[in-house]
Design brief:
- The chain is built from 18 helices and 22 strands.
- It is of the alpha+beta class.
- The C terminus is likely disordered.
């Protein structure tokens, strides 16, 4: 019988660092070997640090190996004083503390030794057992090795460069949150994930790799990181979210707005007019109006809200066209008391203001009444059928007062599309939706302005994974994000957080044995993060992969030191800025105007 090669799990004297003196559940305390003069060791050409926060140590218990995170390194005199034990204050003895998190055992299978690792601890060490550093080859098995179903995201801190691999299906299929203070590198972390996803197919030699990634980008940051992406923007006239795609909640948020969101009378006026307008639109398109609901994405005419008097009259006649006509149809017929018409007039004036606002051309372009102009598939094609792996919704040009309705329409439309796909279609076209500044769209406060967006993204978080929609929330204030949405995220990438309430929020998601990791949140370096959840084999402190400057989002801070070395801008420079500013507004109107004219010419038909 051929003897087995040496067991790599046997104790290695050069990696021994001390002996356990206390075991308190998963928390163990060891006294460092007095012979250790420098907190480093070299083994097989790799330099290992002793006592680095978050590094991994192990304890041999027969054939079992017990692993723990280093959570503290201090003098033994402090440790004894804390417990009321007399001590020699001049002693140089040191204490290392660790929190146990998993076990493993080396097994010889298929002609090689393999480490069978599992999270959780069932075997606890005893005092006087030795504590060892964990070699790099063993860390690779503890942290998880790469493969077709894992994504290389960076390297583990204090592990000698051991790569960090995240389970791809767990990362996306069960939602992820990326959290960190302003300037901590959240956008760069998201860009690193997206670049890794785009490169994964080539790395694994897949014959076909077609990611479908949609980014809600409120600050126009990601365009520079993905130059070949599909950018949907109001500035360029490439974004089209027609008003008739909005459901009742979004339409009310658009027309009635934030200040009078609870105005029941106006809400009822809009609801009744909307359902009647949609059914009229369905009839014009040859659809059965009885099957149309108030939320059906069926085009309808807006009508003309301009030039009406306080009784809804134009030149002595009641306007009955489109949504405006359906609103007028609800007016009291025999009353000329202006006060009884005021609620109707408020809705029409707001509709008139929306139509006059050139910033809203992407949403308020009136339907011409033809079938071609009202094709839902054209809207879906923008972000699901362009062929580009990354689609960026640039919301920087969308007015803040309707940003909630716009983002809600995107999220809800995406969900509805997946809902109406067959099982086979869902299986071959999963989608990742990245929601930047998540606290803006899904706030926990219940802000009426973003109520529609919060409800849409809540539904994605609760039900999206069943239909092949992955959600990635990105926020600098986790304590201000809707708790229902965050609770659906099963993986967390946490960068530097300086706010106490946000750190407490993150601490609440960790098991008791790992809360020590949150102690370093305020001191993490740029690109460093704590990864927790089902995508990671174990909770880890990692260094995110470095990206080239052209791969980074456009969110770099301006250097005041360099900027203030230049003289003040003169009148000529400011005039050039003002001209660009004014020109951009004119170009936006011109682009949308040209597009709407071409559409009208191509789809000319008599409106009903």
């Amino acid at each position: 019988m051929t003897p087995y090669p040496p067991n790599p799990g046997d104790p290695i004297d050069n990696l021994a660092i001390g002996r356990i003196i206390e075991v308190d559940g998963p928390h163990v305390v060891a006294e460092l070997d007095a012979k250790i003069s420098e907190l480093t060791r070299v083994y097989n050409g790799t330099l290992y640090s002793i006592g680095q926060f978050g590094s991994i140590v192990k304890i041999h218990f027969g054939r079992r190996l017990i692993y723990g995170y280093v959570s503290r390194l201090r003098m033994k005199a402090d440790f004894n004083r804390e417990r009321g034990i007399p001590t020699d204050e001049s002693s140089s003895a040191r204490i290392i503390e660790a929190d146990l998190f998993g076990e493993g055992e080396w097994k010889y299978t298929a002609g090689e030794w393999r480490l069978a690792f599992e999270r959780g601890v069932s075997t606890f060490p005893l005092p006087q057992q030795g504590m060892y550093l964990t070699p790099r080859n063993e860390l690779a098995d503890v942290f998880g090795r790469g493969g077709d179903f894992s994504l290389e995201f960076g390297e583990h801190v204090g592990s000698g460069g051991t790569p960090c691999h995240l389970d791809l299906d767990e990362l996306l299929g069960k939602h992820t949150a990326v959290l960190g203070s302003t300037g901590a590198g959240k956008s760069s972390a998201v860009a690193a994930i997206v670049h890794s996803l785009l490169q994964h197919g080539a790395k694994c030699s897949f014959p076909c790799w077609s990611p479908r990634i949609i980014i809600l980008d409120p600050h126009n940051e990601y365009g520079s990181a993905f130059p070949s992406h599909n950018r949907l923007s109001t500035d360029e006239g490439t974004l089209s979210l027609p008003y008739w795609m909005l459901d009742l909640e979004e339409t009310i948020a658009l027309i009635i707005g934030k200040t009078e969101f609870a105005a029941t009378s106006q809400t009822n006026i809009v609801k009744n007019a909307l359902i009647a307008s949609r059914r009229a639109g369905a009839l014009a398109l040859g659809l059965n109006p009885d099957e149309i609901t108030v939320d059906s994405p069926v085009p309808y005419l807006l009508g003309d809200p301009t030039g009406l008097d306080n009784l809804g009259m134009r030149n002595g006649s009641l306007d009955t066209n489109g949504l405006v006509g359906q609103i007028n149809d609800q007016r009291p017929k025999d009353s000329k008391d202006k006060s009884k018409h005021e609620e109707f007039n408020k809705v029409i004036r707001k509709l008139e203001g929306l139509l006059r606002d050139s910033r809203l051309k992407f949403m308020m372009q009136p339907w011409t009444g033809t079938k071609d102009d009202g094709q839902l598939s054209r809207v879906l094609l923008q972000f699901l059928g362009s062929g580009d792996p990354v689609c960026i919704f640039d919301l920087s040009g969308v007015p803040n007062e309707i940003a909630g309705a716009a983002s809600s329409a995107v999220a809800r439309t995406l969900f509805a599309t997946k809902l109406w796909q067959s099982n086979e279609e869902r299986a071959i076209s999963p989608v990742l939706l990245i929601c930047e500044e998540a606290h803006r769209y899904v706030p926990h406060r219940g802000d009426a302005q973003y109520s529609a967006a919060r409800h849409a993204i809540q539904r994605l978080a609760k039900e999206g994974r069943k239909y092949g929609i992955a959600l990635m929330l990105v926020s600098q204030r986790p304590s201000e994000v809707d708790a229902t949405v965050l609770s659906q995220c099963n993986s967390w990438i946490v960068l530097r957080i300086t706010n106490d309430s946000d750190r407490e929020h993150v601490r609440a998601i960790l098991p008791d044995s790992l809360v020590g990791l949150t102690k370093v949140l305020s001191g993490l370096r740029q690109r460093e993060a704590i990864v927790v959840g089902q995508a990671a084999a174990i909770p880890s402190r990692i260094l995110i992969r470095r990206l080239e400057p052209l791969q980074l989002p456009r969110s770099n801070d301006i250097s005041f030191t360099n900027g203030w070395r230049s003289p003040h801008m003169d009148e000529c420079s400011l005039a050039a800025i003002a001209e660009r500013w004014q020109l951009q507004e004119r170009l936006r109107e011109k682009k949308v105007g040209i597009k709407s004219t071409q559409t009208a010419e191509a789809d000319a038909g008599p409106p009903f």
